[in-house]
Amino acid sequence: MQGPAWQHTINHLGTASVITLAGELDFAADGDVRQLLDAELQQPSLTDLRIDMTRVTFIDSTMLGTLVHAYNAIDDTDRQLTISPSPVVRRILEITGLSHLFNVADVDPPDAPGRAS
């Protein structure tokens, strides 16, 4: 039996949460990813939600809807939502016109100058 086509990790850094997603994010993953995002958004101390999608290889319209759902949950608050997209995700966000909704930021590579190890 084959495992899921996607993986995730969650790291809490003070008042920030970093959700790292990898693999194929489609209809099959949507419910689980939405639950992950909703659980983090319910943390009262959360001020910054970062979604690292640099290892995402595929994203479909249901997952775009989930990202918009997270944006709408944060929009009228003092919280911030930042997405670090893979080239595939960046292209889809740009094609659909959704890139303007999110703070889109690149993740520094592990060997970038000045990055702490």
Automatic annotation (TrEMBL):
<dbReference type="InterPro" id="IPR002645">
    <property type="entry name" value="STAS_dom"/>
</dbReference>
<dbReference type="Pfam" id="PF01740">
    <property type="entry name" value="STAS"/>
</dbReference>
<feature type="domain" description="STAS">
    <location>
        <begin position="18"/>
        <end position="117"/>
    </location>
</feature>
<dbReference type="GO" id="GO:0043856">
    <property type="term" value="F:anti-sigma factor antagonist activity"/>
</dbReference>
<dbReference type="InterPro" id="IPR036513">
    <property type="entry name" value="STAS_dom_sf"/>
</dbReference>
<comment type="similarity">
    <text>Belongs to the anti-sigma-factor antagonist family.</text>
</comment>
<dbReference type="InterPro" id="IPR003658">
    <property type="entry name" value="Anti-sigma_ant"/>
</dbReference>
<protein>
    <recommendedName>
        <fullName>Anti-sigma factor antagonist</fullName>
    </recommendedName>
</protein>
